[in-house]
Amino acid sequence: MHRLLACLVIALLALGLAPSPALAERVRDLGQFQGVRSNQLTGYGIVVGLPGTGDDNLAYLTQAMKGVSGRMGLTLPAGVAPGLKNAAAVMVTAELPAFAKPGQRIDVTVSTIGKAKSLRGGALILTPLYGADGQIYAMAQGNLAVGGLGISANDGSKLTVNVPTVGRIAEGASVERAVATGFDSEATLRWNLFAADFLTAARVRDAINQKMPGTASVEDGVTLALTLPLESNTRASVMAAIEMIEIKPAETTARVIVNSRTGTVVINSAVRLAPAAISHGKLTVRVDEKPTVVQPAPFSQGQTAIEPNSQITAEEENRSVALFEPGASLAQVVDALNLLGVTPSDLVAILEALKQAGALKAEMVVI
């Protein structure tokens, strides 16, 4: 019975450690149709109604408030600088989704650009949102929802929870202009991979042509040209069917990512090693200073002196040698380095040495 249980455990471990086959992914998870994307919008506005946490007499805020009051028919006298502790100059940002039509609502984010302490309780005045081409695509206005809180006392103590200088207005902007995507006018649509790979592009092409012969052709390592019918209903159905096709993407490029600031090292599954042996030791040199105070004899008219006393010790840890067989996989690399007991900084040094020796078959990226 014990032998049977042992054999069963070994079999289960072998199944768990066996490399799993590459999983198929949908085309929609590997890329997107060209032009079918969101666009960034930006605007400059004023938030009013703050409980004394605004900007207060900043030149650009005063100028903006004069412009707002002028639109309302109120002209401020020349040389007047109104106290504006209840107002704040802000930047308003939003994303315009693909196929958004005039009249639809989108969310906006409001952030201070001056010395305002909090936007809690404020309301955004009607603000135009511009695209990269300088055209107005939406108009934003509404009450802010602020998740942060800031409190200060007279003695200078402060308490801040989250970020009180950034707020959000759900469905706070109305779309005024649509962005052309070419969906209903271009005879050929293009589909782009998120990451360039000729093998993956070829597999996507073959999978599409298998279901819809003559539809797809590869233009480069990122783009596929798709010849689709111009009729909107048929084109939408074909695009939906293409996005749900499953393929097995090519294995990623062997790469080692090293974050020099945090010491993080990430090794992907494609990394392989040529035959190599590694021995990584650690030498610690310690210097202890224990000076001794020497007092002169009585009535000798001598002076107190300090006699230096230094003690130097050196310790070197005994580390074993790890041998990598040809084509060692990621699991074998990790196991061997764990046996050596290396730290993240030591791991970076080992990987750099392997790369210089020509044993590391991967690209090293230091960020």
Any overview of this molecule?
This protein is an alpha+beta fold. The protein has three domains: 39-175, no CATH class; 182-247; 255-292 and 306-366, no CATH class. Helix content is 23%, strand content 34%. A six-stranded antiparallel barrel has the order 3-4-5-10-7-6. A hairpin with a 5-residue loop joins strand 8 and strand 9 (158-161). It is flat, with a radius of gyration of 34 Å. The two termini are 54 Å apart.
Supply database-style keywords.
alpha+beta, single chain, six-stranded antiparallel beta barrel, about 375 residues, 3 domains
Task: State the gist of this model.
The protein folds into 3 domains: 39-175, no CATH class; 182-247; 255-292 and 306-366, no CATH class. It contains 7 helices and 25 strands.
How helix-rich are the residues, as a percent range?
A: 10-25%
**Helix/strand class:** alpha+beta
Shape from CA axes?
flat
- Strand percent estimate: 25-35%
Distance between the amino and carboxyl termini: 54 Å
Tell me the number of helical segments per DSSP (H or I, 4 or more residues long): 7
Question: Low-confidence runs (pLDDT<50, min 5 residues)?
Answer: 1-21
Number of strands: 25
Number of domains: 3
Biggest sheet details: 6 strands, antiparallel, barrel
User: Could you give the order of strands across the largest sheet?
Assistant: 3-4-5-10-7-6
What Rg do the Cα atoms give? 34 Å
Q: What's the mean pLDDT score?
A: 76
